[in-house]
Write a structure and sequence with these properties.
Length: 364
């Protein structure tokens, strides 16, 4: 399809000559005898690839037409036709968006050369615009694909964690409730500390898996009704190392594995298994240490009944700076009691819903 050119000049003879030159070169032309007529054609939705306009006409100056044209057709090049004494104005037009100017009188080859360069410039601009649009669409599509893949990956993470939880629950049902409560308590403290969401997600995984190494312990130790003797205590302490070895093999749980490994370390360096001290202990492990103690004190254990939340608060405060990170203890003590009571009820309700099947229809 031939390129369409809008030729604007208020002198009919010049319009006819320019149009004849362009038609002979294979271009399709429309003539406008005034700027008002030219704008009417553009307003009507006619499509042109180039506008060739005289600079001086009675109804509107060339700069005014250029501005109106650029607003309506920003991708259409405009070539100004000017007399020798109008060069300063023509240069102003170029600074305002015109592609080029032709000086009267001009030869046919000058006209065709300028028109050809203007149309090539337009073609390159449109190609670039198309490329950018396609690139933006491609980036958007790839971003959506990546987000879908990340969502799928997160679901697979959740399924992996649930699998670990189910395996531990088969070993000891009470450990399942303990892990969920410690996770909820840890998340609550982490939020109170103002940790970012991404870090809280990592800490939550470590909290949920902190006792996973107990799967490697014999039942006689795990569910012993009384306190453990010295040898049994040594074996029980090995669950940190067992858990670390299990979890670290899964790439996305590498940071959580460090929490599993260190959740029984003490702030003063007297903990196990490595005797880490202060900030040598991962922050997640320091959080889990407080949450783990809170749940242990306020839960029934094989060798003693549950104690009050106040008793737990006093015990944790007593060991601040020795067993626990004092900053975490300070934050914990500032949190209201109903935080922990509400979370415990919520976890117990979840476990009840999963463990008790729905009553068959028609039965009481």
């Amino acid at each position: 399809m031939a390129d369409r050119i809008l030729v604007v000049d208020d002198e009919k003879e010049i319009r006819d000559i320019v149009t004849s030159m362009l038609n002979s070169a294979g271009y399709a032309c429309k003539k406008a005898g005034s700027r008002t007529e030219a704008l009417a054609a553009l307003d009507a939705g006619e499509q042109f690839d180039l506008m060739l306009s005289d600079l001086t006409m009675a109804d509107l100056d060339g700069i005014g037409l250029l501005e109106r044209t650029m607003d309506k057709c920003p991708n259409m090049p405009v070539v100004i036709v000017a007399a020798i004494d109008e060069i300063p104005v023509a240069l102003t037009a170029i600074r305002n968006g015109a592609y080029d100017y032709l000086l009267k009188p001009f030869e046919r080859e000058q006209l065709l050369s300028t028109v050809s360069r203007a149309l090539e410039n337009r073609r390159l601009k449109l190609e670039n615009l198309t490329y950018r649009t396609n690139l933006e669409s491609l980036v958007k599509a790839r971003t959506e694909q990546l987000q879908a893949a990340m969502s799928s990956l997160e679901r697979s993470y959740d399924m992996t964690l649930e699998g670990f939880g189910d395996a531990l629950a088969l070993k000891n049902a009470e450990t399942e409730g303990h892990s969920k409560r410690v996770t909820a308590f840890t998340i609550a403290i982490a939020r109170a500390l103002g940790l970012p969401r991404e870090q809280i997600n990592v800490v939550a995984r470590g909290a949920f898996l902190h006792d996973i190494g107990k799967m490697a312990l014999p039942d006689r130790i795990l569910i012993k009704p009384g306190k453990l003797d010295a040898d049994e205590t040594v074996m029980m302490r090995e669950h940190c190392d067992h858990g670390y070895k299990i979890v670290k093999k899964i790439p996305f749980l590498s940071e959580a594995a460090e929490i599993v490994y260190a959740h029984h370390e003490r702030f003063d360096g007297s903990g196990y298994p490595r005797g880490l001290k202060g900030e040598q202990i991962p922050l997640g492990a320091r959080l889990v240490a407080v949450a783990n103690t809170l749940d242990s004190i306020t839960s029934d254990l094989p060798y003693r009944p549950a104690q009050s939340l106040q008793a737990a608060r006093e015990e944790i405060a007593k060991w601040s700076g020795r067993q626990f990170d004092p900053e975490i203890v300070k934050t914990f003590l500032e949190m209201p009691d109903n935080t922990w009571e509400g979370l415990r009820r919520e976890i117990e309700a979840q476990i009840f819903r999963v463990s008790v099947p729905p009553t068959p229809h028609g039965q009481a």
